[in-house]
Specification:
One of its GO terms (molecular function) is oxidoreductase activity, acting on paired donors, with oxidation of a pair of donors resulting in the reduction of molecular oxygen to two molecules of water. By secondary structure, the protein is α+β, with helices and mostly antiparallel strands. It is built from ten helices and seven strands. A five-stranded mixed sheet has the order 1-5-4-3-2. The longest helix has 26 residues.
Length: about 250
């Protein structure tokens, strides 16, 4: 059965916490009841309430066909492409997606989405080797001040490398298997840095869902850390305003 046609004016009415519509590939979805079941959390969906979420949907879902199976139940309407009032916004969205797909195609041809097993394997070996050396240095050679300084240097390098390594694992960029990426992400972030992978994925997803949207925003919140807020000055607001597309 054909779905009713709606324009952007109607879509934008549904931006509240309990009433959220998003648009993906010109199809309108009512995700109000789905958002709390969303594996990535409702905040990521909320960033695109009443907006076009096609680019983010493609970027966040490696298996797009699998995700679309869940979406089909929430398809409530189709976007009216012939509405005169929406001619400008539809044109800008089309141009945006064409540019994005063009860049993606170039990067795919250059093989930049293929992770180097040698590179990442060497990084993992380096992280664990430096951690072990930092420990053995103190365990077997004593705790004189210069031994402590040496272990601090070794451990600091290890932690810095682990930070970037866990970042790529969190982005599922190292292995082709999503599960394998998650397992090693738990090892690197959980074991070497003592942080929660769930927390990192949740907060980092906000950053990538709407990059460069500059407003006072929460960096992080946990049960034992006071809420931190950061407000960038007007210069950065002006610069980033031109970098972000938000119809």
């Amino acid at each position: 059965m054909a779905k009713p046609l709606v324009n952007w004016g109607e879509v934008k009415k549904h931006q509240s916490l309990k009433d959220r519509w998003i648009v993906i590939d010109k199809k309108v979805y009512d995700v109000s009841s789905w958002q709390n079941k969303h594996p990535g959390g409702r905040k990521v969906i909320g960033h695109y309430a009443g907006q076009d979420a096609t680019g983010a949907f493609i970027a966040f879902h490696k298996n797009r066909q699998y995700a679309e199976k869940f979406l089909s139940a929430y398809h409530v309407a189709d976007l009216d492409q012939k509405c005169p009032e929406d001619e400008d916004i539809n044109s800008r969205i089309k141009e945006y997606h064409e540019d994005l797909e063009g860049i993606r195609s170039v990067l795919l041809r250059q093989g930049l989405f293929e992770g180097s097993k040698l590179f990442f394997g060497t990084m993992m070996l380096q992280v664990f080797t430096l951690e072990l050396l930092a420990y053995l240095n103190l365990a077997y050679f004593g705790t004189s001040w210069w031994r402590i300084v040496l272990s601090i240097v070794l451990y600091s390098i290890s932690q810095a490398q682990a930070s970037w390594l866990q970042h790529d694992l969190g982005h599922l960029s190292v292995f082709k298997s999503t599960r394998t990426n998650h397992i090693f992400h738990e090892i690197i972030l959980g074991l070497t840095k003592g942080a929660s992978c769930h927390w990192w994925n949740h907060m980092h997803s906000q950053h990538h869902a709407k990059p460069n949207v500059i407003t006072p925003f929460k960096l992080f919140r946990t049960s034992f850390v006071t809420e931190m807020t950061v407000t960038l000055d007007n210069l950065f607001r002006l610069i980033y305003a031109f970098e972000n597309y938000n119809p």
